[in-house]
Design brief:
Elements: H1 8-15, H2 25-35, H3 48-54, H4 59-73, H5 77-101, H6 104-109, E1 115-120, E2 123-128, E3 137-140, E4 149-161, H7 163-166, E5 172-173, E6 191-192, E7 197-209, H8 215-225, H9 232-261, H10 266-280, H11 285-301, E8 305-307, H12 311-317, E9 321-325, H13 326-330, E10 336-342, E11 345-349, E12 360-362, E13 365-367, H14 373-384, E14 389-390, E15 397-398, H15 401-411, H16 417-423, E16 426-430, E17 438-445, E18 448-455, H17 457-461, E19 464-469, E20 472-475, H18 478-493, E21 497-506, E22 523-532, H19 539-548, E23 552-556, H20 561-571, E24 579-582, H21 583-587, H22 591-597, E25 601-605, H23 609-621, E26 626-630, H24 636-641, E27 644-648, H25 654-659, E28 662-664, H26 669-710, H27 718-737, H28 760-787, H29 791-812, H30 820-823, H31 829-844, H32 849-855, H33 862-889
Parallel strand pairs: 9-23, 9-26, 19-22, 23-25, 24-25, 26-27, 27-28
Antiparallel strand pairs: 1-2, 1-3, 3-7, 4-5, 4-6, 4-7, 8-28, 10-11, 10-22, 11-12, 12-13, 14-15, 16-17, 17-18, 18-21, 19-20, 21-22
Helix pairs in contact: 3-5, 4-5, 9-10, 9-26, 10-27, 11-26, 11-27, 12-26, 14-15, 19-26, 22-23, 26-27, 26-28, 27-29, 27-31, 28-29, 28-33, 29-31, 29-33
Length: 890
C-alpha cells in the first residue's frame, strides 16, 4: 500500500488498528514478535583479525615480503628487519582506518529516539521506541523526535523539521490531505518519518513502517551497499608495484644470463642478481607514502580539517567535481531577513543569521531604525504575531526559523518580544495552516484590541483595504496594488521567502477570546519582508578558487528551485546556460540519460537521498573524481559512494561523520580548497620522491649491467647495494615527501583520471638521471680499475661517489620544473639536515674497522671526500642546467 495516497480510514482497516483506542497490548506484543524491534540493523562486520590479514593483500607488500626473505637468505638481517617493520607499520595503520570506517551504521542506529508516546488500550503511554509496531498510534508534540514512519490523521499547526532527511532548510507544514502517487518525499505532507523533529504543534499518526522498512532504514541499506572505490593513489601504486615485480624477474634473468655468458662464478652471480633485484625495489616507498599522507593530515588539522582516511587527502588533489549540500554547507542554516518594504520604501537589513548585530539601509545609506516610525510599526507587528523566542542574551532561541528571523530583524531596531508581551497581552490566536497561509494574533492594550497578521502575500493582500505610508494610512489604490505585486515578484525572483505583515484595530465591546477568520478583513498592510538562508561569508570566494583550480561546484538541495538558483547565482555556481534539475525529473531519467547531461547541471533541487547517489554515480560513469559534502543523515550514502565524502562538522550528524572521509570542523567551504591544495602537494611529493628513488635504482642497475656486459668485475658488492638503498632511499625520500606546496599549485588543472602514475615523461626523467649517475660512477670505477688495477679502491670510490651523487641529487629532485635556486635550497631544512647526516654516515663507515671489512672499504682522507662531492655534483649540475634551458624555451 502506498501510504500517502490512501485515506487514513483505509489505512486503519489495512493495519487493523483503532484510531481512538489504538492497539491492545496483547496485539502489539504479537506484532513485535512477528515483525521485530523498531531498530536499524547493522550489516555483518568483518572480524578484526580478518581485517588485519587483509592489509597484506597488496602487490607492494608481497614484493617487500619477498625482499625480506631474500635479504634474510643473504644474511642481511638489518635490512630484512627494516623492510619487515615497514610492512607491519603499514598493516597496523590500514587496520585502524578500516576498523573505524566500519562504524557508520552503528552511528545511524543511534539516531533513533529512545522513547515515544503512543495510544494503547485507550490510554496514552510512554514506551521504548524500539517497541513500536505498525498500527501503533503516535502522539506527537513540539520537541519530539518521530520514532517511526507514520501517516497523519489528526493535526493542529503541526510543523516538522525534515532537514536531516530531505535537505529542506525550512520546517514543513503538515496536513492530512491525500497526495498523488508520484509526490516526492519532501512533499508528502501527510506523512512523518523516523528521525525528524517536531518543531511546532501537535498531531496523531498511524505507524506504517518501523526499523529497516522506514525511510531512515532505506538510507541505512544504501549506506551498506554504497561502493567505496580505490583511491587514484592506490590504483597508481598498484600499477607501480606490478611493473616493479616484473622488472625484478627481468633483471634477475638478464643479469644471470649475461653473467653465465661471461663465465662468472655461479654463486657470486646468483647473489649479485638477487641483490640487484632487491635494490630495484624502492622498499621505502610505502613508508614514504605513509609519511607524506600523515604530514598532510597534520597540516589539514591545523586548518580545521580532520581526515579519517589518509589516502582521501591525495584524492582531493585530483578532484574534478564537488557536489555540495546547500543548507549548513554553502549557507549558514539560519533564516535572515534581507529586505523590508515599508511605507513604499525598500530597506536593506544587514547582518547574518541570528546575530542581532546589523543596521538598516535605504539607498545605501544607514538609517536609525529606532526612530523610524514606519519601521517601528511594521516590526512591532511582526513581533506581536510570533511564536518564537529570542532574548537579549541569546541564551534562549527557539521556534520556527522564519519567526526567529523576524525577531532578529526587530531586535536590530531595538524591539523585543518580552516588552510587547508586557505591553499588549495575548488574547487569542488563529494559527497558521497550509490552507489559510497566514497566522493572526489578537492582543489587548488597555481597553483596545488589535489584530496582527502575517502570512503569504497572496493570502494577506486580498484582505487589506489600506496601506501604511510615511504620510499616514491611505486606501490601497490600483497603482499601489500593482507596485506591491511587482515588489513581491522581484523579491521572489531574488530567491527570498516573502511574508506580508498587516494589522487591524478591532471594534470595542466584543469578546475576542473565541474568534474565527471572519475578523481578518479591512486590514492595513504594513510591510513586506524578504528572507533567506544566507551564504557563508567565505563561500563565494571558495567557489571561485575551485573554478581557478579547475573544479566544478554543483549544489544539491531539498529547497525550491527558485531559492536554489538564487543562492547558486550569488555564489557563482550557476551561470547563464546552466541547467537546474529537480528530484522528480531525476526519477524519470535513466542512469545513462543523467550521465549524458550531468556536466551541464549545476543545481539540483527537491532531491532525496536516492537522487544524490544517482547524481554521484552519474559523474562516476563519466570517470570523474567527485566529492560530496553534507551534514544531514540524508547525505551519508552519497558521501560514502563518492570518491571523497566531506562532512561539515559543526552541524553534521554522527552518521554523516562516520560515513565521511574528511570532516570540516569549522563548516567552512574554504577549508575544502585547502584540502585540494594539500592533496595536490602530496601527490606531487610522492611523484617526485618515486622518481628520485627509481632514478637512483636505475643508476645502480645500469652500472652493474654495463660492467657485466663489458666483462669487468662487479663494481658494487651486494652489501654496498643494500647500504645505498638504506642511506639514499629512506631518509632523503621521506624529507622529499614532506616538502611544502608550490605557490602555483592551485592554478593547475586537475590531473586526468586516466593519466598513469609513471607516464612517458616520468620514465624519460628516470632514465636520463639514471644514466648521468651511472656514467659518473662507472667513470670513477674505470679510473681506478683500469688506471691503477686496484679493484678494492675502484669499488670503494665508485660506491662513495654513487652515494654522494644520490644525496646531492635530492636537492634537485624537489621540483621537476624549477631549479634549486628557484625553490630555495634551504626552504626544506629537514632535507638539508638528512643529507648532511647521511653523508656523515658514509664517511664514518670508512673509519670503523669492522665495517671496513663488511663493506670492503678503507679509510679516506679529506681530499678524497672533496673529490666525492665534486664528482657527485656533476649529475645535479647537468640536471639543473637542463631545467634552466627548458624553462627558457617555454
Amino acid at each position: 500500500m502506498i501510504w500517502h495516497t490512501e485515506s487514513h480510514s483505509a489505512i486503519a482497516i489495512h493495519l487493523k488498528t483503532d484510531l481512538q483506542l489504538g492497539l491492545s497490548s496483547l496485539e502489539a506484543s504479537a506484532r513485535l514478535q512477528a515483525g521485530g524491534v523498531n531498530e536499524l540493523t547493522q550489516e555483518k562486520h568483518i572480524g578484526p583479525l580478518k581485517i588485519f590479514i587483509r592489509q597484506f593483500n597488496s602487490v607492494v607488500i608481497w614484493v617487500l615480503l619477498s625482499a625480506t626473505l631474500v635479504s634474510s637468505l643473504l644474511r642481511e638481517y638489518i635490512n630484512a628487519i627494516a623492510i619487515l617493520a615497514i610492512v607491519i607499520l603499514n598493516a597496523i595503520i590500514g587496520f585502524m582506518l578500516e576498523y573505524r570506517a566500519d562504524r557508520a551504521i552503528t552511528a545511524l542506529k543511534g539516531m533513533t529516539t529512545p522513547q515515544a508516546k503512543v495510544i494503547r488500550d485507550d490510554h496514552r503511554q510512554l514506551i521504548p521506541a524500539s517497541q513500536i509496531v505498525p498500527g501503533d498510534i503516535l502522539c506527537l508534540e513540539s520537541g519530539d523526535v518521530v520514532a517511526a514512519d507514520a501517516r497523519l490523521f489528526k493535526i493542529a499547526s503541526l510543523k516538522i523539521n525534515e532537514a536531516s532527511l530531505t535537505g529542506e532548510s525550512l520546517p514543513v507544514e503538515k496536513n492530512i490531505a491525500l497526495c498523488l502517487k508520484e509526490t516526492p518525499l519532501a512533499d508528502q505532507l501527510n506523512m512523518v518519518f523516523m528521525g525528524t523533529a517536531v518543531v511546532n504543534g501537535t498531531g496523531h499518526a498511524m505507524v506504517v513502517a518501523t526499523g529497516m522498512q522506514t525511510e531512515m532504514g532505506h538510507i541505512a541499506t544504501m549506506l551498506q551497499k554504497a561502493s567505496s572505490d580505490e583511491t587514484p593513489l592506490q590504483k597508481r601504486l598498484n600499477q607501480v608495484a606490478y611493473r616493479l615485480l616484473w622488472a625484478c624477474f627481468a633483471i634477475i634473468l638478464l643479469i644471470f644470463g649475461l653473467g653465465l655468458w661471461q663465465s662468472l662464478p655461479f654463486f657470486s652471480l646468483f647473489t649479485s642478481a638477487v641483490g640487484l633485484a632487491v635494490a630495484a625495489i624502492p622498499e621505502g616507498l610505502p613508508a614514504v607514502v605513509t609519511v607524506a599522507l600523515a604530514m598532510g593530515v597534520q597540516r589539514m588539522a591545523r586548518r580545521s580539517v580532520l581526515v579519517r582516511h589518509m589516502s582521501a587527502v591525495e584524492t582531493l588533489g585530483c578532484l574534478q567535481v564537488i557536489c555540495t549540500d546547500k543548507t549548513g554547507t554553502l549557507t549558514i542554516g539560519e533564516m535572515t531577513a534581507r529586505k523590508l518594504i515599508a511605507g513604499g520604501i525598500i530597506h536593506t537589513i544587514l547582518g547574518e543569521g541570528y546575530d542581532i548585530a546589523g543596521n538598516y539601509l535605504h539607498d545605501s545609506r544607514e538609517i536609525n531604525a529606532n526612530q523610524n516610525a514606519v519601521l517601528q510599526q511594521v516590526l512591532r507587528a511582526a513581533v506581536a504575531c510570533n511564536e518564537a523566542e529570542l532574548d537579549e542574551a541569546h541564551s534562549s532561541i527557539f521556534g520556527d526559523p522564519t519567526e526567529i528571523a523576524l525577531l532578529v530583524a526587530a531586535a536590530k531596531a531595538g524591539i523585543w518580544k518580552k516588552e510587547i508581551e508586557q505591553e499588549m497581552p495575548r488574547v487569542a490566536e488563529l494559527p497558521f495552516d497550509s490552507e489559510r497561509k497566514r497566522m493572526s494574533v489578537i492582543r489587548r492594550k488597555e481597553d483596545a484590541y488589535k489584530l496582527f497578521i502575517k502570512g503569504a502575500p497572496e493570502a494577506v493582500l486580498k484582505r487589506c483595504s489600506k496601506i501604511l505610508l510615511p504620510e499616514g494610512i491611505e486606501q490601497i489604490s490600483k497603482a499601489s496594488h500593482i507596485q506591491i505585486q511587482q515588489s513581491c515578484e522581484w523579491m521572489a525572483a531574488d530567491g527570498l521567502r516573502i511574508l506580508a505583515i498587516a494589522e487591524r484595530l478591532l471594534p470595542e465591546g466584543i469578546d475576542y477570546s473565541q474568534v474565527d477568520d471572519s475578523i481578518e478583513v479591512n486590514l492595513t498592510l504594513l510591510g513586506i519582508v524578504g528572507m533567506q538562508d544566507p551564504p557563508h561569508p567565505e563561500a563565494k570566494r571558495a567557489v571561485q578558487q575551485c573554478k581557478t583550480a579547475g573544479i566544478k561546484a554543483v549544489m544539491i538541495t531539498g529547497d525550491h528551485p527558485a531559492t536554489a538558483q538564487a543562492i547558486a547565482q550569488e555564489l557563482g555556481i550557476f551561470s547563464p546556460g546552466d541547467k537546474i534539475v529537480t528530484g522528480s525529473e531525476i526519477e524519470k531519467m535513466t542512469s545513462k540519460d543523467l550521465a549524458n547531461i550531468v556536466n551541464d547541471i549545476t543545481v539540483y533541487a527537491r532531491v532525496s537521498p536516492e537522487h544524490k547517489i544517482k547524481i554521484v554515480e552519474a559523474w562516476k560513469q563519466r570517470e570523474t573524481i567527485v566529492a560530496m559534502t553534507g551534514d544531514g543523515v540524508n547525505d551519508a550514502p552519497a558521501l560514502k559512494a563518492a570518491a571523497v565524502g566531506i562532512a561539515m562538522g559543526k552541524t553534521a550528524t554522527d552518521v554523516t561523520k562516520e560515513a565521511a572521509d574528511i570532516i570540516v570542523t569549522d563548516n567552512n567551504f574554504m577549508s575544502i580548497v585547502a584540502g585540494v591544495e594539500e592533496g595536490r602537494t602530496i601527490y606531487n611529493n610522492i611523484s617526485k620522491t618515486l622518481s628520485y628513488l627509481l632514478a637512483g635504482n636505475a643508476g645502480e642497475l645500469i652500472v652493474m649491467f654495463i660492467a657485466i656486459l663489458v666483462g669487468w668485475p662487479l663494481p658494487l658488492l651486494v652489501i654496498q647495494l643494500l647500504w645505498i638503498n638504506l642511506i639514499t632511499d629512506g631518509l632523503p625520500a621521506i624529507a622529499l615527501a614532506t616538502d611544502a606546496s608550490e605557490p602555483d599549485i592551485l592554478k593547475r588543472a586537475p590531473r586526468p583520471t586516466k593519466k598513469p602514475f609513471m607516464d612517458k615523461a616520468f620514465f624519460q626523467r628516470v632514465i636520463f638521471i639514471g644514466c648521468l649517475t651511472s656514467l659518473v660512477t662507472l667513470g670513477t670505477f674505470a679510473y681506478y680499475y683500469l688506471g691503477y688495477h686496484d679493484l678494492t679502491q675502484a669499488r670503494d670510490s665508485a660506491f662513495s661517489v654513487l652515494v654522494t651523487a644520490e644525496l646531492l641529487r635530492a636537492f634537485g629532485a624537489r621540483s621537476h620544473e624549477k631549479t634549486i635556486w628557484q625553490v630555495n635550497i634551504f626552504s626544506n631544512l629537514r632535507l638539508f639536515f638528512i643529507v648532511s647526516v647521511s653523508f656523515f654516515l658514509q664517511v664514518s663507515i670508512h673509519h670503523v674497522s669492522i665495517l671496513q671489512k663488511v663493506f670492503g672499504i678503507k679509510p679516506v682522507s679529506l681530499l678524497e671526500c672533496i673529490s666525492w662531492v665534486v664528482l657527485g655534483m656533476i649529475p645535479l649540475a647537468i640536471m639543473e642546467l637542463h631545467k634552466g634551458i627548458r624553462n627558457r624555451r617555454t
